Structures are given as structure tokens and as C-alpha cells.
């Protein structure tokens, strides 16, 4: 999801990839823009961010930062669609009226990097011992790098959690620790006559890919290996077949139309035994207004597959600096402050998971989470990979291709021929996507 407590659209930034070549040309033409002009002390530091619990928490604290740098901070919080539209307009025009940008390293960073819209932060993060770049967890840290350059700093992280009904697993020896056990328990607990399902999860072609990624990795597969499609591998095929069977045999009807917004309420209303999705949504199951399972919901780490438990641990939101900003030094000071060990620990203690290993090692920062969930998050963070989708320019198109065999499996169709076709299509896509990168 990407997954945050608010569920922003994953499609919003896809439109930016469509005009990659033209935008890159604009960026090249305006390459001198970063050196233009000199702002006065009255010029505010402008931050554009998603309307998210992290952004809201930081905005409440900005007076402290303003006093530190002697400059006013203007922080604009937008929906995902509004943010995408604003970036598209401002950055295509080499606009200097945004300094700090809240971005998703796994969704739009490659496009922004290709277009020359993000400042290279490599020297700043690695040359600042007090900042402690090595303190950031490896998976989110690696996701912040594009073409060898650090282009963003992760501030919010996300992993999958196994949500389960405690009252239903007592006779099963507790929550399943393996994917085989999850499938067996889901099938056993399904009772379609009573509209009760062993498992609910995302099945929508595009939206399911990010959650399926952990099943793929735990089967020993990946999206891309050595620059080539790997979704036709035996490991990927096994992951496709497993996920399809899980939802086809133990899931609710209409699963192929379900994204987060449709799957989550089914578990919250007590109609499913198991659900795997972003750990950031846990509070939805504890809210008496929306949930009937708040007394019975349990939390567990992602179950182990043939290759072990290999969930994703991603930076759902990060901070970067507009390359055309005239306040890049102050923008960096904001990022240093907002992602400092002290701030990350404080926000994580308030229930907003960060990316610093030191915060995760301090159990006091996890006290606001249910104890079971805190432990599941900690374990998944240690095991996690830093991406939950193909790392390509045209992310939306890639997810459509990769998601096609998922739909086939959920519909009960033979998966192998669909995987074969999707693998060929994805291989061709990767060639074209790489041409975009080189253009």
C-alpha cells in the first residue's frame, strides 16, 4: 500500500511516465535554472507533501525548525492526484516554487530521476557523519538510490502483516508460520454457505502486485533478474499458482475486483479468517466504528515459503529536493531535521513507522503499536526486501502485465500459459522501458 494509514492512489503518478522523453528535454534545456537568482530571507521554504499522518505530525513541529534556520516554512498537504498534477506542472516548467518534495521511491523516483528533477543527495547523506546514513535500514536505503545516486531519504516505511482471527486459530496451534499452513488453514475455515472465507486479499490485476511480491520472493522468485523478466521462472509460476489457489478456493467472490478498499472491510467485518496487507492499516481493525474484530484480531509476521519468509520492507514515502530549488541548502537542513534519529524515534513512538535501524532497535518507539504487531513489524523489517513492484519507469504498465496471471489463477484458469504470455510481454516491455531510460 504503498501502502500509509491513508490509502493514496497508486495510479496518480503513472501519467508522468507517459511524457518521459519530452519532459527530459525540458529538464535538459533548463539545466541552468538551479543557479538562477538569490532568494531573500523572507522567501519561505516550500514543502509539498501527501496529506498523511507523517506530514501532519511534521507540520505541527515546523516552528522548531523555523527557529533553527531563521526562515519561514510553507507546507502544502495534497491528495495523491493533486500532488501528481502539481509536480507535473511545476517540474516540467523548471519551477523554483517548491523546495522539498515528498515522493515515492518505488513509484515516481525513476521518472523524476530520468527527467532530472531531483537533486543528487549522495555527498550530503554520506558526507554528514551526524546524519548517519548507515543508520537507515538497508532495504529502504537501497530503494533510495537510482543509477548510483541517492535521490531521496525515506521517512515512512511499510511491510505486509498477517492479520488473523485469534478465536479461530486456537485449535490450529496459533497463526500459520508457513504459506503451506496458511493455505491449509484457509481452506479448512472457509464456509461459503455462511459467507465466511478463509482468506481475503487483493486480487485486482494492478493493485494485487505489491502484496503478491512477498509471496513471489518467499517462493524464491523475483520480477527481474539481471535486467530480464523473471516472472516466467518456476519459482514465479509456483507463486502465481499458490496465490491464485488461495483466493480461488478460500477467498470471497469478486476477488479479482478487490484492491485494499474492497478487501479490508471484509476482514474488518468478521467475514474472513486471514488477511495479508500493509501493516500501516492495522488501526482500521481496532476502530469500533468500522470493525467487529477489534477484540479478536491478531498480528503475525509474513509466513515462510519454500525460500523462507521474504516480505517487502519499503519506503512508502520519502523526501527529495527539487533540482530547480533556490534553497537547496535549507531544503537539506529540513530533511536532516525531519529524518533525524530524534525525530524518527519520536514519530515512531506515536505510531508512524520510520526507516532508521536505531529507532527499530529501541522498543520504546514501538510501544504505541499492539505488542504482537510491533514484533511482527520488527521481524518483517529485518527480513524485508526494499521493493514491492518492478523498478521501472512505467510502473503502472509493468504491474498490469505482471498482474495478469494473478487474475487467471483467481478465476480458476490454468496459470501456466498465461504466465508464459505475460513473461514474453514483460520481456519486451523491459527492452522498451530501458530504451526510455537511455533516451
UniProtKB/TrEMBL annotation:
Q: Which CDD domains match?
A: PBP2_TMBP_like (cd13585)
List the InterPro entries: Bact_solute-bd_prot1, SBP, TAT_signal
Pfam annotation, one family: SBP_bac_1
User: Which PROSITE patterns is this protein grouped with?
Assistant: PROKAR_LIPOPROTEIN (PS51257), TAT (PS51318)
Query: Which residues lie in coiled coils?
Result: none
Keywords assigned by UniProt, alphabetized: Signal
Q: Where is the signal peptide?
A: 1-23
**By what name is this protein known?**
ABC transporter substrate-binding protein
Query: From which source organism is this entry?
Result: Streptomyces tsukubensis
